[in-house]
User: Which sequence fits this backbone?
């Protein structure tokens, strides 16, 4: 709101202020992905999922984490390393005059996001395995 009031009310532009909104959004989204996964609040297409039993949902989540989440997060992490290291080598700043001189920090969120997502994905996989294991009928012991 401040940006709009400054621009249209006082005819003042503040590039750093405008870029700070981008930085804040990127930070909250990139670092909030693992938190959202932890609380099972991610977006899903819920045509069949809502009809499944708790164990069915757990199995779907386990499969999704193993087949999609981990490979994607690993790919993001690995492919972003050269991109981020090149930015750090030159301490990349904003291409705009008066912009925030820390684009390299913003780009560093990509591998950090991948790392937190992998960690949370592994935790979710562990939780799902324990849940499914607890749902199995007890085995008979032979003595």
Assistant:
């Amino acid at each position: 709101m401040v940006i709009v009031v400054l621009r249209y009310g006082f005819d003042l532009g503040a590039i750093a202020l405008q870029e700070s909104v981008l930085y804040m959004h990127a930070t909250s989204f990139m670092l909030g992905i693992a938190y959202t996964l932890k609380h099972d609040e991610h977006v899903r297409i819920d045509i069949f999922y809502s009809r499944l039993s708790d164990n069915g949902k757990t199995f779907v989540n386990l499969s999704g984490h193993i087949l999609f989440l981990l490979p994607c997060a690993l790919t993001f992490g690995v492919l972003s390393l050269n991109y981020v290291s090149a930015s750090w080598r030159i301490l990349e700043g904003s291409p705009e005059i008066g912009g925030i001189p820390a684009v390299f920090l913003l780009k560093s969120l990509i591998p950090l996001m991948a790392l937190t997502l992998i960690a949370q994905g592994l935790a979710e996989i562990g939780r799902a395995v324990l849940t499914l294991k607890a749902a199995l009928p007890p085995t008979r012991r032979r003595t």
Remarks:
- The chain has a mean pLDDT of 88.
- The CA atoms of residues 94 and 101 lie 5 Å apart.
- The helical segments are 2-10, 15-38, 54-89, 103-107, 109-135.
